[in-house]
Structure prediction request, 688 residues.
Amino acid sequence: MSTSTSTPQAKTAYGAGREVVLDVDELRVHYRTPTGDVKAVNGVSFQVFAGETVGLVGESGCGKTTTAMAVLRMVQPPGRIVSGHATVAGTDVVGLNEKELREMRWVKLALIPQGAMNSLNPVMRIRTQIADAIETHLGKQPKEKLKARILELLNQVGLPARVYDMYPHELSGGMKQRVCVAMAIALNPPLIIADEPTSALDVVVQRVVAQTLMDVKKRLGVSMILIGHDMGLQAQMVDRIIVMYAGNIVEIAPITRAFKIPLHPYTQLLIASIPSIKERKPLKVTEGITHDLRNPPPGCVFQYRCPFVQEICRTKKPTLREYTSGHQAACHLYESPDDMGSHAQAAAAMKELDR
Amino acid sequence: MTAPLLEIRNATKVYGGSGIGGGKKVVALQDFNLSIAESPATITTIAGESGSGKTTLASLVLGFLHLTSGDVIYRGVNIQSMNAEQRVHYRREVQAVFQDPYEVYNPFYRVKHIFELAIRKFKLANDKAQARQMMEDALKVVGLRGGEVLEKYPHQLSGGQRQRMMIARAYMLKPRIIVADEPVSMIDASLRAMILDIMLHLRDDFGISFLYITHDLSTAYQIGNDIHIMYQGRVAENGDTGHVIENPKHPYVQLLLNSIPVPDPDVKWDTNLNLPSEEEMRNSPKSGCRFYPRCGSRMDRCLQGIPPLFPIENQHQASCFLYETPESSPASK
Prediction:
């Protein structure tokens, strides 16, 4: 595999003229098991543009975290990247060796891991940990300059200066999470991947951390991938959303469109199952059996759960197609203009939105 | 009025403060009162953030912990002074469903083991056929078929299926109350509704009450009858779930409801929220209202004593001096 350094072009009309920070192309990640490979990421393609926040959602086991780990080249055996490319700021990470990767991590892309608060070293002071990340990449720094930089970072994530000298156990979960955000932005990477950054936090603290992330993003103009399953949080935070199901992307849409006219039945289900705090409504109950990921059925990955399943869904796998600007879905329901008619409501709503 | 099914009176639980070195005392639960009626069956929600005492409460009801002071009374008998026979009875009628449907199974046994164990322990069946029938009946209630799941190992089932089996196991024992500690927080969003629906089904068709412990107010709003919202070991506000969530009175509950992300991209959080870092680190003064450091409407009054529950209307109460009126005496009896 060769290392390409060309700047990728936007592949959809939606992204025309925008700078592509991340270009994922036909990425496949398999986990080896004694009874066959689990196709955790099964040919996924998407782009992230400069300065935008993209949500990556789906249920547990759908491949969202694995996709992110592949972009970071952190897939652990028995998992492996089988094929495909992931180009971060002009460099294809799939072909890099360990040394090249090390130089790239934190500088070009940073990770805020799931349960990030547990990723801090309990016997190191906060200042030492942040300094570590900075000095590993930039070399030894003058003491005063380094201190000023760390205090600036803490300030950017809304933490008081005394956190500088503290140990992780002295901080609350939300504060530790914000220390991780400070570390992620320490070297000004163009892309940050946040894997469920608020999932272990209480609602109020979650809001504080979410607002810190949005604030930091706005100020630094960094692109962000926000992995999660909380559709409410996605609605608050992201510009575009990517919905995954069983290792495949089923829909990509600007967030407002995804909520107004979700095309894929799985996206529709996800949105319908958000419990409301505004009105009491009957629960929408669905049976949920996902196929064995070692043997995906021919045809659509969602066929066993889809309420609109047709004959063609059992035999032919739908491809991801762009229907209106930036709105892509992989579903046979919308493949011909006639079929759009059968989903007249969606079609009408689409027209309405495009005006 | 008949005696309530389950009554909790002035329950207080203090951790630490004894043993070598004494240790720091942590008041996990203070003066908690709750009553679940014999009938009709209800879903009573205990909601709150981590550290609010909700899981401590569940453990107390299930008998995993003993109260520092106060009483848990089941059908007129204090659970700490039950004799052996009463205790077995209590163990059978008060069942539990836990948060993590992955950890509760022993991976070496087929899943039917959890049913067989319960049947053997409580001597529910005379022979294998009868036992099998009991399992099948229980699974049917949660929408599973015995032939498809009983012979499998836990790893072959999805999280939602495993959680439904735990509910089926609890149901099989014909309990009066199920203590459900965060039963849906580890279930995928698209499958949560099914678990909640089963809870409603058991309440309405089989007369099983639930003590629903959760941090998620929106699911409580969808299924709950009464709610107690906790803050650092004390009830901040309680009452009918619809009433409390639609008209929150306590500043903490208002903040909590305001912080739930709205699933609508057009309705963004309006203001930036800042938490005093002392409060985040739980170093707040322990006299007076626990919510004082964060509260937007704090008064000097709030530092002088812990606010009791003041009545709002009907059964709705809030522990906040804002609702103190000259004639309102403390609502605790």
User: Anything to note?
Assistant: The domain at 13-245 of chain A is CATH 3.40.50.300 (Rossmann fold). The radius of gyration of chain A is 21 Å. The first strand of chain A starts at residue 20 and ends at 31.
